[in-house]
C-alpha cells in the first residue's frame, strides 16, 4: 500500500530516481503543451489562449479522482504523504504577491525552469529573480517574515471536510466547474481570435 | 496561412493535463510527494548558503531544520525532480523544433523591457512562494490533488489577485490596437 517511500517500502536511491523520472515527464508536458511560452501563460488572464486553463484543471481533476479512488480502494493512505498544512494568512498574502509576480513576470517557478532549459532568455531572467527573492527572504526571515509566516495555522485541513461536504461530491462539483470553465474559456478564446494577427497565431500555435 | 509551417505545434491540452494528473498520482504513490517547483529552488538556495557559510546556515531559523540531518539540503526529491524537468523540457522542445535561443514577449514589448519585467516578477515569486509555502505546482496543483484547503486558498489568491493585477497591467500583454 502506498505511499511507498514514507513507509520505507522503497529505498532512498530509487525514490530520488523516481523523482527524476517524474520530473522528466513533468518538464516534457510543460513544454509540449506550451507552458514555456510566456504569452500562452498570460492568456490565462486575458482570455486569448485557453490552453493553460484546460491543461491545469484537467491535471488537477485527474489527480483528485485518481487519488480519491486509490484511497478508497486501500491502495494509498493519503495522510501518510506530504499532506500540506494550511496557514491561511501567509498563503493568502503570498498568493497575492505571486499573482502580481505572474502578471509582471509572465511565468511561475516550474514553467520558467522548463522555458529556461529550452533557451528562453526571459525565463533565465525570471529564475535569477526567483533566486534573489528566495535569498532575500531567507536573510530577512527572522527580522521580517517569521510572525507572518507562522500566523493563521489551521493544521492539515481537508477542504471538503472543512466545508462539511462529502469528498466524492466535492470532487464531482470541482470537475463540473472545470468543464464549465473549459467551455467559457474556449468562448473567450474564440472571441479574441479575430483580433489576433497571423504572427500572434503562429506564436501561440492556435 | 502561407506561414502555417512556422506555426508552433502543441500537444492537446486535455491529453497533456491527463498525463500530468497521472504524474501527480505517481509522485504521491511512490514518494509521498506532490509535484513541486519552488521547494526545489529553495533547497538549492539553502544548499548554496550551507556550502558558503555553514555556521550561518545552522544559526538561521529558516534553514536550520533543513541542515540538521547532516546531509546537504540540496539532496532532496524536489531537486532531482527539477533536474528531470530540465531534461524533459529539452527533449520535448527538440522533438517539436523549439530548441533555440529566443526571448518570449508580446511584439509591442522590447526585449530589454521584457527581461527586466521577468526579473521583477521572479523576485516577487521568490518572496511569495516562501511566504505562501509553495507555488502553482506544489501549493495549488498538488494541494488540490489531495483536497487540501491550502491548495484552494493558493488558487483563489494567485488567480484572484492575478486577475486584478492583470486588469491594471493590461498594457504589458495586450497591444492597444487589439482592444
How would you explain this protein's 3D organization?
The complex is a heterodimer of chains A (206) and B (179). Chain A folds into 2 domains: 55-83 and 158-206, no CATH class; 87-156, no CATH class. The termini of chain A are far apart. In chain A, helix 1 crosses helix 5, helix 3 (51-72) runs antiparallel to helix 8 (167-193) and helix 5 (109-117) packs antiparallel against helix 6. The relative contact order of chain A is 0.15. Chain A contains 9 helices and 2 strands, in the order H-H-H-E-H-H-H-E-H-H-H. Chain A has a two-stranded antiparallel ribbon with strand order 1-2. The longest helix of chain A has 29 residues, at 121-149. Chain A has helices spanning 12-32, 38-46, 51-72, 88-105, 109-117, 121-149, 159-163, 167-193, 198-204, and strands at residues 86-87, 153-155. Chain A is globular and about 55 Å long. By secondary structure, chain A is an all-alpha fold. Chain B contains 8 helices and no strands. In chain B, helix 2 (38-52) packs across helix 5 (77-95) and helix 7 (136-145) packs across helix 8 (149-168). With 179 residues, chain B is mostly helical. Chain B is globular. The mean pLDDT of chain B is 94.
Amino acid at each position: 500500500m502506498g505511499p511507498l517511500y514514507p513507509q520505507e517500502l522503497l529505498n532512498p536511491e530509487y525514490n530520488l530516481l523516481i523523482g527524476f523520472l517524474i520530473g522528466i515527464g513533468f518538464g516534457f508536458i510543460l513544454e509540449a503543451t506550451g507552458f514555456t511560452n510566456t504569452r500562452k501563460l498570460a492568456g490565462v488572464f486575458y482570455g486569448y489562449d485557453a490552453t493553460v486553463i484546460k491543461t491545469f484543471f484537467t491535471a488537477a481533476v485527474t489527480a483528485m479522482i485518481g487519488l480519491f479512488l486509490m484511497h478508497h480502494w486501500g491502495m494509498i493512505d493519503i495522510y501518510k504523504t506530504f499532506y500540506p498544512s494550511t496557514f491561511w494568512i501567509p498563503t493568502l498574502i503570498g498568493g497575492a504577491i505571486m499573482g502580481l509576480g505572474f502578471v509582471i513576470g509572465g511565468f511561475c517557478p516550474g514553467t520558467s525552469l522548463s522555458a529556461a532549459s529550452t533557451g528562453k532568455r526571459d525565463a533565465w531572467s525570471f529564475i535569477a529573480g526567483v533566486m534573489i527573492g528566495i535569498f532575500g527572504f531567507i536573510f530577512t526571515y527572522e527580522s521580517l517574515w517569521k510572525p507572518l509566516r507562522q500566523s493563521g495555522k489551521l493544521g492539515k485541513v481537508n477542504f471538503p471536510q472543512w466545508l462539511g461536504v462529502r469528498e466524492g461530491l466535492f470532487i464531482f462539483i470541482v470537475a463540473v466547474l472545470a468543464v464549465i470553465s473549459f467551455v467559457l474559456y474556449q468562448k473567450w478564446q474564440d472571441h479574441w481570435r479575430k483580433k489576433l494577427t497571423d504572427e500572434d497565431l503562429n506564436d501561440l500555435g492556435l | 496561412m502561407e506561414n502555417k509551417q512556422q506555426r508552433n505545434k502543441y500537444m492537446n491540452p486535455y491529453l497533456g493535463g491527463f498525463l500530468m494528473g497521472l504524474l501527480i498520482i505517481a509522485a504521491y504513490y511512490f514518494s509521498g510527494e506532490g509535484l513541486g517547483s519552488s521547494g526545489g529552488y529553495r533547497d538549492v538556495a539553502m544548499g548554496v548558503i550551507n556550502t558558503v557559510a555553514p555556521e550561518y546556515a545552522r544559526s538561521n531559523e529558516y534553514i536550520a531544520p533543513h541542515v540538521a540531518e547532516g546531509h546537504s539540503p540540496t539532496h532532496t526529491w524536489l531537486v532531482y525532480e527539477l533536474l528531470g524537468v530540465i531534461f524533459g523540457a529539452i527533449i520535448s522542445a527538440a522533438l517539436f523544433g523549439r530548441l533555440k535561443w529566443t526571448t518570449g514577449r508580446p511584439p509591442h514589448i522590447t526585449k530589454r523591457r521584457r527581461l527586466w519585467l521577468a526579473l521583477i516578477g521572479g523576485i516577487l515569486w521568490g518572496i511569495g512562494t516562501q511566504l505562501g509555502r509553495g507555488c502553482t505546482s506544489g501549493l495549488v496543483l498538488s494541494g488540490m490533488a489531495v483536497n487540501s484547503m491550502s491548495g484552494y486558498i493558493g488558487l483563489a489568491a494567485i488567480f484572484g489577485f492575478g486577475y486584478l493585477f492583470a486588469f491594471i497591467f493590461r498594457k504589458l500583454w495586450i497591444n492597444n490596437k487589439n482592444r
